[in-house]
Automatic annotation (TrEMBL):
<feature type="domain" description="PRD">
    <location>
        <begin position="1"/>
        <end position="91"/>
    </location>
</feature>
<protein>
    <submittedName>
        <fullName>PRD domain-containing protein</fullName>
    </submittedName>
</protein>
<dbReference type="GO" id="GO:0006355">
    <property type="term" value="P:regulation of DNA-templated transcription"/>
</dbReference>
<dbReference type="InterPro" id="IPR050661">
    <property type="entry name" value="BglG_antiterminators"/>
</dbReference>
<dbReference type="Pfam" id="PF00874">
    <property type="entry name" value="PRD"/>
</dbReference>
<keyword id="KW-0677">Repeat</keyword>
<dbReference type="InterPro" id="IPR036634">
    <property type="entry name" value="PRD_sf"/>
</dbReference>
<dbReference type="InterPro" id="IPR011608">
    <property type="entry name" value="PRD"/>
</dbReference>
């Protein structure tokens, strides 16, 4: 998905890119653990979607790919985390 949007690790974004990859690793490691969805992030989702439409599009695609590949019902707040990481990479 990232390559399709020309997002790659560069000298300028290496810190943000690495943080995003770390988040994805933790996210995938904890998919099967029970926890509550983060309601405060869900409350901000509409604002984030309007403020960062491209990041929201990319983050949603990544979220959908993970959902399809794992077959799990993921927490919606994870999409917000993905969008925030993507926005850092785009800016």
């Amino acid at each position: 998905v990232l390559k399709g949007y020309a997002i790659q690790r560069t000298k300028e974004n290496n810190h943000f890119y690495d943080r995003f990859m770390i988040h994805l690793n933790y996210f995938l490691d904890y998919l099967d653990r029970s926890r509550d969805d983060n309601q405060s992030l869900l409350d901000m989702e509409d604002h984030i979607k309007q403020s960062y439409p491209k990041a929201f599009e990319i983050g949603s695609k990544i979220y959908d790919v993970i959902t399809q590949h794992t077959g799990l019902d993921l927490y919606k707040s994870e999409r917000v985390y993905l969008v925030l990481h993507i926005q850092r990479l785009l800016s």
